[in-house]
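We give this protein:

***
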Amino acid sequence: MTKNIRFMDTSFRDGFQSVFGARALTDDFIPAVEAGIHAGINHMESGGGARFQSLFMYCGESAFDMMDRFREAAGSSASLQTLARGINVVALSAQPRDMIDLHARMFKKHGVSHIRNFDALNDVRNLIYSGQCINNAGLHHQVAITMMELPPGCSGAHDAEFYLKTLREFLDSGVPFDSICFKDASGTSNPKKVYETIKAARDLLGNDVIIWAHTHETAGVGVTQYKAAIEAGCDGVCLARSPLSGGTCQPDLLSVWHSLKGTDYTIDIDVNKILEANRVLEECLKDYFFPPEAMKVSSEVILSPMPGGALTANTMMMRDTGTLHLFPQVIHAMSECIARGGFGTSVTPVSQFYFQQAYANVTQGPWKKITEGYGKMVLGYTGRTPVPPDPEIVSIAEKQMGMPVFTGDPLDTLEPGIPKAKALLEKEGLPVTDENIFIVGALATPGGNKGLDFLKGKMSVNVRKIEKETESASQPAAKQAILNPVSSPCLYKVTVDGNSYEVLVEEEGGEVAAIKPVSASQGEAKPKPAVEVLAKLPGNVYEILVSEGDSVIKGETLLILEAMKMETPVTAPAGGVIATMNVKKGTTVKTGQVIATIQ
């Protein structure tokens, strides 16, 4: 008897994240949702993960509005699923209990029916409360165990025995669930290991529990992994539609359907209707910039497992900061970060911890700067890593961060978030709604609050599309463009008749933004040389905390740079008065660039 394999269309969440860094506008893709429903697809991934914060940070949209429109387009009977990261849910950092509960209730309110819930460390403690909240909200709770392949020479976790141990721990917790997923965000797990893991899980769970498999095609083995999972007894797989399939995305729906011909398994689709739905999706995205790295097999991730959903998100950010040329070095350095960090699965947020630390190791020197996320992970503040991290790295993190090793439950360290969010909204004169409470709570960072910036209209749109030829045939037919780009001013020193001036020139258009004398006139005493404040790493100016004319002391934070979702304070190298501030909010800076001067 032929077994029908279920599938979820991941094009509109994981596909967007894996190709566009989650930056896709709702108006552009809604027709493709409707086309998918018309083609008979009744289970779609509609949001969550990076498709929550990216809507606010890059698309100028509310993720809640997007989810409402998605449900309207899909109809009332479709299963719409989102992705949650355990105690992080869809936030930029771990959330307190009241915010975790609010997440489940808000997503239910805005049309979600299923939530896949995972923890990158496979620390079951991080799944218990979030899973209870998902269940209490009346949603389908799909708990996930995260998988990957370890870097060469590493052992002690991420084998079938480890995954079964994690599964037993979850079952022993008593948390209610509706299905189980084995999730490989980097697409690197050896197919034999996939088979052994799911076969053992099926034997443990019996035939009535729904088992799902999730992977990416990044390393070129996704279809093979799915065939192994299906033969081992899984019931459903995550698939995507062209042009958001293959490469860093999920395996293609039609390719997997084709690979099952002549076997005891099938996927029940109308191929012609799927082809038509694909054409609609391709038309919807015809103006989008498809990064070349998103469309190819990247076999190097087998050695440094980088999730498909993070690879292009990171390369997009590296394009924004002019550091894409460093990507090969960073991906190579990432292997050491995994090997010495305790083997947390390379999936959000841990994949970002690995990449941020590798980026810092490349741009600032190996282990010269322990990044916040990586440091807190190796010190235990995000949960237990599968194996103990390298003691040397733990010691470096303790010294740099001034924090001891923590062995308790991460949730116990977090104060309630809703009262603080309400107080912030009231202070800013903004409506105190559940949606706004969750937005400012979930998008708070050490350097500011991106949710608040969105609600106050301060977030610009940064979606990469293709700029069509409009002026002459001699111009390139298409080039990469960013909607609402932020230009970067350049500082020059000009001497006229013995007098020196600093001239600030806008990069786009070449207009003079400011002229400031920097030396005394003839016959007057020369002032002491200005101290230059230099950028130690490339990034975007996220927040400026001082102005020209302000007095500062040595070590005081002047501004905050953001790169790879990582905020880095720039401090005053000396005390004095801010003579010039050479950047503005949104400016992209390079390593060694003069950001400000202190007199």
